[in-house]
Amino acid sequence: MNDDDTEQAQVFTEHRGLLFSIAYEITGSVADSEDVLQDSYLRFAKVDPGTVEDPRAYAAQVVTRQALNSLRSAQRRREEYVGPWLPEPLLTATDERGTDPSARVELAESVSMAMLLVLETLSPLERAVFVMREVFGFDYAHIADAVDRTQASVRQVAHRARDHVQERRRRFTPANEETDRVVGEFFAAAMTGDLDGLLRLLAPDAVYIADGGGKVTAAKVPVHGAQKVARLFSGLARVGLPEMTIDTAIVNTAPGVIVYSRGVVDLVFLFEIVNGLITGVYAVRNPDKLTRFGAPSPS
What we know:
By secondary structure, this protein is α+β, with helices and mostly antiparallel strands. It has twelve helices and seven strands. It has helices at 3-14, 16-27, 30-45, 55-78, 113-119, 124-135, 140-147, 151-168, 177-191, 195-201, 226-234, 236-239, and strands at 91-94, 202-211, 223-224, 244-251, 254-261, 264-274, 277-284.
């Protein structure tokens, strides 16, 4: 490895959290983000460092361009997706095992499941511009180079995307001791079939969204309303899973629960909580999106 290669590698190592965050917030996929970073590094390594005025910004431009291409390809595949599509959950920290390597992501509201779902309603171009401008504060010149548009065009796209996101942004409480308590009480009620207990913890307009990708059993449409969500979870104790174990975790900065069957991850729950009440439950069960979750914590 020559000096130029070493310098390029140092840029990607130093700013990996930023670069991964950009890719993940544009694609909504950990797997695609890792591919984007690998491909982007190979492209970045071919550039003469002497021609790059701001290596951080230039690396971000390369990653944004590749993530945008990845998202456009993925959107075509998602048109045939069975049931609701949810972003691939990102394990940002766990209660028992400390920080996961994925926690190098630059944490922000923008990696929450609620925000990622809002970003899904943007066009790929709007999403890339919003992430670079509103989340990470890059100037319009750098963004214009990344998305191959004029600065005037990028300003218009940024304004449109910002208004769109502000209209649809959902409030949520990041994981803390209070949200842990709410989730713990919710699962205790679910495992004992305590319908009233579940209802006390659910907001009236709570929604449950499950992603099985057509590969495993999962609700194919969102479930709306506290009564329906409570009835769904009150059946957990009756159905259950073989040799089921549960770990609490922080997933996409929100309180989460990882459910295992016979030592293999079966699904991941993420909870959206506002003012002590659960407003949203996201269940990711598509096995393709759970490959990065390891074995359960030792008993």
